[in-house]
């Protein structure tokens, strides 16, 4: 890597204003940055090498300052090509402004995410500084592993209902006349149930995608939370659960709740399903008004609705409490993708609410979420 021919002579390390980063910068210093920062002057000499860069490269800053940039960061791409020879920041096209982030290799094959910016005094003038940002790949690898786990989990969960659907439809098509109407009905009901399971899995995937990307939309309407709870209890009792398995307590003075009714149904559905499947004894659902403190700058209390779902099962171990709302957490081996509570948390927070988990009064798990009144801006 060669600097432009009009560059001044290199300053000796430890001499001159640019040999070391300033002792104090207004607001923030290089060592305060979470990412590695490497700055080279117009001659290609490293003049700034922060603590994060030292950690990522395992090179002390005292050894890096004053050396050529390509010696301090002998980067190669994944094909083994030397990166500085390919990019040539000082001698390349005068219109370039830098390099986008990409995966590169340090000596020893260590991967690092690198981006660069070329600083010029004039749009097409010589490069006066090259500013390089370094980041470790651990966070990206964790994200990739999480996505791989998501794909594997969903593929596993889809295989069973799809196999059932394919088996029953193939059997019906090839041997329709051999079955009685009752047998046909039973098979079609199984196909319908499995198709519904597949639909729910796809909906979960879409929800996770929207939550992770921040694209989850909340369409607020006036929601009757009491009626919503009643509907979900009815679904479970008609599905075979005894009516006395559920106890619903509605406290007086509930404020009007403006929320997305479909997402409220998802939240309640997931929490009740979780209590029925993984809990035991009576499932208690309590709806009460909540006071979330005073609004900033006013004397008015910020009201909301608090919903608590608890059971009488073994509960959640204390060591697992902080992992309950993460992807793939399962409280037992009774099926499920481990995505439901992760989605519940995303839906509650999309409404500006909060959700917590703890131990109920009778030892089981207790989930409590609080939603603000959420009046749309045009009605406030």
Summarize the structure in short.
The protein has 380 residues and is α+β, with helices and mostly antiparallel strands. The chain has helices at 51-57, 61-64, 69-72, 83-87, 138-174, 181-213, 225-238, 261-278, 340-350; strands spanning 36-40, 46-49, 98-106, 110-120, 127-135, 221-223, 246-250, 257-259, 283-294, 301-310, 354-359, 365-372.
Topology:
Blueprint: E1 36-40, E2 46-49, H1 51-57, H2 61-64, H3 69-72, H4 83-87, E3 98-106, E4 110-120, E5 127-135, H5 138-174, H6 181-213, E6 221-223, H7 225-238, E7 246-250, E8 257-259, H8 261-278, E9 283-294, E10 301-310, H9 340-350, E11 354-359, E12 365-372
Parallel strand pairs: 7-9
Antiparallel strand pairs: 1-2, 1-5, 3-4, 4-5, 6-8, 9-10, 10-12, 11-12
Helix pairs in contact: 5-6, 6-9, 7-8, 8-9
Structural class: alpha+beta
Tell me the fraction of residues in β-strands, as a range. 15-25%
User: What's the β-strand tally?
Assistant: 12
Regions with little confidence, pLDDT below 50 for 5+ residues: 4-21, 294-301
What assembly state would you assign to the polypeptide chains in this entry?
single chain
| Average pLDDT, all residues | 83
Radius of gyration: 30 Å
Distance between the termini: 62 Å
How many helices in DSSP terms? 9
User: What would you call the shape?
Assistant: elongated
Percent helix, as a range, is: 25-40%
Order of helices and strands: EEHHHHEEEHHEHEEHEEHEE
Q: How are the strands of the biggest sheet laid out side by side?
A: 2-1-5-4-3
The main β sheet shows up as: 5 strands, antiparallel
């Amino acid at each position: 890597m060669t600097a432009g021919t009009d560059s001044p002579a290199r300053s000796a390390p430890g001499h001159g204003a640019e040999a070391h980063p300033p002792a104090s910068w207004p607001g923030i210093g290089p060592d305060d940055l979470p990412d590695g920062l490497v700055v080279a002057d117009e001659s290609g000499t490293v003049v700034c090498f922060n603590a994060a860069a030292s950690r990522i490269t395992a090179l002390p800053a005292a050894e890096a300052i004053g050396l050529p940039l390509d010696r301090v960061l002998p980067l190669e791409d994944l094909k083994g090509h030397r990166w500085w020879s390919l990019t040539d920041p000082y001698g390349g096209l005068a219109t370039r402004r830098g390099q986008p982030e990409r995966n590169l290799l340090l000596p020893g094959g260590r991967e690092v995410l690198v981006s660069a910016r070329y600083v010029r005094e004039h749009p097409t003038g010589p490069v006066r500084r090259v500013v390089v940002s370094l980041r470790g790949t651990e966070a990206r690898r964790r994200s990739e592993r999480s996505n791989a786990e998501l794909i594997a989990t969903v593929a596993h969960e889809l295989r069973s209902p799809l196999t059932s659907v394919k088996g029953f439809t193939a059997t019906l098509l090839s041997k329709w006349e051999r079955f009685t109407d009752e047998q046909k009905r039973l098979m079609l009901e199984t196909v319908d149930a499995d198709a519904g399971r597949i639909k729910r899995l796809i909906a979960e995937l879409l929800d996770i995608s929207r939550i992770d990307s921040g694209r989850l939309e909340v369409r607020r309407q006036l929601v009757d939370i009491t009626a919503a709870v009643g509907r979900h209890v009815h679904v479970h009792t008609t599905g075979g659960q005894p009516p006395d398995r559920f106890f619903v307590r509605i406290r007086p003075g509930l404020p009007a709740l403006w929320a997305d009714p479909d997402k409220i149904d998802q939240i309640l559905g997931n929490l009740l399903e979780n209590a029925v499947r993984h809990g035991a004894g009576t499932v208690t659902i309590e709806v009460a008004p909540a006071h979330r403190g005073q609004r900033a700058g006013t004397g008015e209390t910020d009201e909301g609705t608090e919903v608590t779902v608890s059971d009488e099962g073994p509960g959640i171990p204390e060591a697992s409490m902080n992992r309950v709302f993460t992807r793939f957490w399962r409280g037992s081996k009774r099926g499920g993708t481990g995505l439901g509570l992760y989605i519940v948390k995303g839906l509650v927070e999309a409404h500006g609410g909060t959700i917590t988990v703890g131990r109920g009064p009778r030892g089981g798990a207790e989930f409590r979420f609080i939603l603000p009144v959420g009046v749309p801006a045009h009605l406030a």
